């Protein structure tokens, strides 16, 4: 834990907070009287342990968000938490989990979808960030792509990762990006065509088929 995230309900006064559970165990484990802290959606700073409470001093802003909106075909439940934590740690603040032909219907019944806040918190703690990402679910591909995505991607570089795309993924982009990533193996041809019709350009980072969590990190690192 590189930063301990505090929430409004933790505060017993303007500058004093009390934690329990996993965070209290972490304080006991590291055995230090001072630690890095941040307030959710607020500033970061330090806290001293005084009589079992945290004396909080906030003196800096969190790192800037990444100018990228991630549109991601819903991953397998067993990797979903890792993907959310990783994307959050990179500074992505808007994530859409969408359906696709290669997404198993059972994925949408996973209880993990009701607990995406937990991996997002882990990602913030890893990156010393405080601003929670906005994560939205879209179970129907076509209505989302045709009705919502054009306005979401307006005034951004709209890209869709696809293993067989002719164009290479650009590097060091100096503008906001909307990035769509499909399931392992990519979106099917009809889905790619739907995205192209609204202005998305298929791009590739090579012939290898990567796991979703690897593809997200590789693409975002290359783009921004």
Topology order in helix (H) and strand (E) letters: EEHEEEEHEHEHEEHEH
DSSP E strands, number: 11
CATH superfamily heading of the largest domain: SPOUT methyltransferase, trefoil knot domain
Tell me the number of helical segments per DSSP (H or I, 4 or more residues long): 6
User: What sort of overall outline do the alpha carbons produce when their principal axes are compared?
Assistant: elongated
Content of β-strand: 25-35%
CATH third-tier fold name of the largest domain: Alpha/beta knot
CATH architecture annotation of the largest domain: 3-Layer(aba) Sandwich
Largest sheet geometry: 6 strands, parallel
Structural class: alpha/beta
Distance between the termini: 25 Å
CATH top level class name of the largest domain: Alpha Beta
Radius of gyration: 20 Å
Verbal overview:
This protein has helices spanning 21-30, 77-89, 117-127, 141-152, 189-197, 212-223; strands spanning 4-6, 16-17, 34-39, 44-50, 53-60, 66-73, 92-98, 134-138, 157-161, 177-181, 201-203. It has 224 residues and is an alpha/beta fold. It has 2 domains: 4-60; 66-223, Alpha/beta knot (3-Layer(aba) Sandwich), CATH 3.40.1280.10. It is elongated, with a radius of gyration of 20 Å. It contains 6 helices and 11 strands.
Summarize the structure.
By secondary structure, the chain is an alpha/beta fold. The protein contains 6 helices and 11 strands. The strands form 2 sheets. A 6-stranded parallel sheet has the order 8-7-6-10-9-11, with helices on both faces.
């Amino acid at each position: 834990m590189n930063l301990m995230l505090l929430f409004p309900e933790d505060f017993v006064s303007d500058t004093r907070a009390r934690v329990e559970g996993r965070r209290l165990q972490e304080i006991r484990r590291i055995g230090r009287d001072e630690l890095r802290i941040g307030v959710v959606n607020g500033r970061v700073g330090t806290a001293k342990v005084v009589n079992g409470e945290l004396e909080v001093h906030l003196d800096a802003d969190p790192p800037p968000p990444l100018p990228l909106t991630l549109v991601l075909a819903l991953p397998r439940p067993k990797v979903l938490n890792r993907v959310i934590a990783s994307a959050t740690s990179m500074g992505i603040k808007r994530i859409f989990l969408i359906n696709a032909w290669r997404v198993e219907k059972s994925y949408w019944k996973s209880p993990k979808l009701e607990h995406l806040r937990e991996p997002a918190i882990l990602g913030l703690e890893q990156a010393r960030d405080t601003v929670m990402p906005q994560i939205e679910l879209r179970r129907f591909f076509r209505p989302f792509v045709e009705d919502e995505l054009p306005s979401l991607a307006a005034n951004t570089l709209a890209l869709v990762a696809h293993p067989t795309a002719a164009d290479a993924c650009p590097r060091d982009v100096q503008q906001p990006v909307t990035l769509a990533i499909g399931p392992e193996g990519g979106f099917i041809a009809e889905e790619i065509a739907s995205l192209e019709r609204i202005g998305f350009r298929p791009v590739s980072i090579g012939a290898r088929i990567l796991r979703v969590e690897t593809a997200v990190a590789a693409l975002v690192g290359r783009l921004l």
